[in-house]
Amino acid sequence: MARVALVTGGTRGIGAAISKALKAAGCEVAANYAGNDAAAEAFRAETGIAVYKWSVADYDACAAGIKAVEEAQGPVDILVNNAGITRDGMFHKMTPQQWKEVIDTNLTGLFNMTHPVFPGMRARGFGRIINISSVNGQKGQMGQVNYSAAKAGDIGFTRALAQEGAFKGVTVNAVCPGYIGTEMVRAIDAEVLKKNILPQIPVGRLGEPEEIARCVAFLASDDAGFITGSTISANGGQFFS
Ligand code: NDP
In ligand 1, which atom is closest to the CA atom of 83? Predict the structure, then answer.
């Protein structure tokens, strides 16, 4: 039977590439999103992958959304916590709301999504949880205290939960992308990108969403059963951890 994979933020950017890679690997895929109905509908029409709208920042919405996925497609075997946002600003100007929105989505979202599926994975003796963190959670980034804190938290979450899932066949890993050419990064001013960001990347280019998706598809596979608690850096040589 095909494994059921649920990808948060799975309709655009890196998440869309992950959803497609998991489908290509033979999974039955569900892609969640927050509000961009037009993008989600275009993605559904292009790929045939089922889409579900709720916010990962809302625990009750996650529980209800996961229930709907499981009723339609079966128990979730693979969870990819990919949904993420930025609300950048220097710390002395950062508002409590900028802090809260990023923590609620990028860190608490992992609790909200993982808590409802983890008991079933343990009971069935198989599970794959893959958390999309960031190079900026590993090294810290000026103007992103909120984002760096949340993404560093994702790594701690991964390492702790890996220890709880290991003897029940549930692996938990993190992937830390560097700069990937999605809308999130293309929103950065082109001159800033060229002058400040590309020179930091030894391979001399942005990464492709598919390069992250292939890492995730491997971690989700049966072949990756001995890898848990890991953090895979996919950043073009920008930072070694
Ligand atoms: P995009 O902005 O291109 O896409 C984000 C996706 O997440 C969208 O599908 C969006 O839904 C969804 N989303 C946002 N908030 C929520 C929410 N509260 N609940 C459910 N879904 C939500 O992002 P990227 O593809 O660039 O980034 C994906 C992940 O990779 C993020 O976690 C990001 O932090 C991380 N990352 C990205 C890097 C990059 O260079 N792009 C570098 C390092 C890490 P909708 O379409 O409805 O808005």
Answer: 7
What is the distance, to the nearest Å, from the Cα of residue 225 to the centroid of all Cα atoms in its chain? 19
- Strands (DSSP E) contained in 76-222 are 78-81, 127-132, 170-177
Element housing 6 (H / E): strand 4-7
CA of 38 relative to ligand 1 center, distance in Å: 16
Catalytic residues: 147
Residue 230 gets the label, from left (phi > 0), alpha (psi -120 to 50) or beta, of: beta
Span 4-234: which CATH code? 3.40.50.720
Cα(167) to centroid(ligand 1), Å = 31
What strands, in cross-sheet order, belong to the sheet with 78-81?
Answer: 50-53, 28-33, 4-7, 78-81, 127-132, 170-177, 231-234
pLDDT in tens, 20-43: 999 999 999 999 999 999 999 999
User: Which atom belonging to ligand 1 lies closest to the Cα atom of 36?
Assistant: 47
Between helices 59-73 and 108-124, what is the axis angle to 10°? 40
* Angle at alpha carbon of residue 58, lines to 56 and 60, rounded to 5°: 115
* pLDDT, tens only, 37-89: 999 999 999 999 999 999 999 999 999 999 999 999 999 999 999 999 999 99
pLDDT at 186: 81
Q: Is the beta carbon of 220 within 6 A of some atom in ligand 1?
A: no
44 C-alpha vs ligand 1 centroid, how far in Å? 17
pTM above 0.90, yes or no: yes
Residue 241 has pLDDT above 80, yes or no: no
Q: Is the CB of 137 under 6 A from ligand 1?
A: no
